[in-house]
Amino acid sequence: MKITAIESLQWDEYPRLLVVRVHTDAGVIGLGETVDKVPGAKGALHGTLAPLLLGQEALDIEGLWRFAMDNIMYHGYAGAELRALSAVEIALWDIMGKHYDAPLYHLLGGKVRDRVPTYNTCIGFGPVQDYAAWRSDAGALARSLLDDGIRAMKIWPFDPYSEATLGQYISPEAIENGLKPIRQIREAVGGAMEIGIECHFRWNRFSIERIARALEPYNILFLEDAMPAVYPDEIKAFAQRTSIPVIGSELLMTRWQLRDWLVKGVAQILMTDPTWTGGIAETRKIASMAEAFGVPLVLHNIAGPICHAACMHLGEHIPNLFFVESVRALYKTYFPVMSNLAPKAEDGSMAVPEGPGLGVTLRPDMLERADLTRAVSEGAGRAEGRRAMGDHWAVEEIR
Questions:
Q1: 28, 199, 331, 368 — which has fewest CB within 10 A?
Q2: pTM score of the predicted model
Q3: Domains of the chain and CATH, by start
């Protein structure tokens, strides 16, 4: 079953999403997705990856991934090229599942749990404005989330105070202001709601330690991306000085960038995003590597229905899963507009689409919308079989 076309879809209403469809000569179409910095990923998809992958065997996922990685490794792989490759790789797994009429979690080796634990990242979209809600009355939002079957939430109340000092200092007054929504949650629902704090790598070590000391009495679930991921030794030192578990980092791509974190014991919890880090198989490899160090994994999931489905299948399969992130403001608004997927939390967890493949289909009208931008790469491609780059200067024509 050969790859005959690679198609990208963008909609003006959802500018952060790039949906990828991989077509085959058997008529099977796989869906993939990546999120954010879409122009770069789209350029890499059609300009770099499609010429390598067109005409190749669609079921040889590992071989195609290695071939593509060998080609993009030369110029800094962990950026647009890897986001594009992640989307294609997810689509190839979807093709395999449809080919064998099996859900993705069966292809991975089956499930270790029946439902996937999740926390809600409190952003807003359309009529579901969870971001505005936690900034005005986080206690009321916590009650609303509990009513929706959600038992854990993530907010970032200290971020605004980093801008004036570039994260070099946070005042006692700012600390008190940042604690306000956390106090509201505890006063409203007590310990019924777990609270994660996102830091968006905005602080130096002095400032994040000050924040952590103020948070410790509130039984916080985790602190995410306390400092930039390029400072692993500083993050490790911080993690050893606070009782709050530290998570990092979706900013590190592939097992190679995450390996040093595990060897050094930087953080108690690892995080990665399948639509950025290389796809389904790479995420499973990262999970297995983390499991060998006794480290649990969070799956970063802030995109669309395809990413959500991929994370759910992985979450059902990965033994050392901590949580799969989810966003109520997205899955309650545009997921059912775009697709057949309409997730619902129950007692802090979610069900997994049954498949085949990812179990996600785009609604037909999504392909007819006026705000759709579609690009297609098709044809024979430029790669004759799969080969390592090696001495590529020996090729008659360098393109």
A1: 368
A2: 0.95
A3: 3-101+369-394 (3.30.390.10), 106-350 (3.20.20.120)
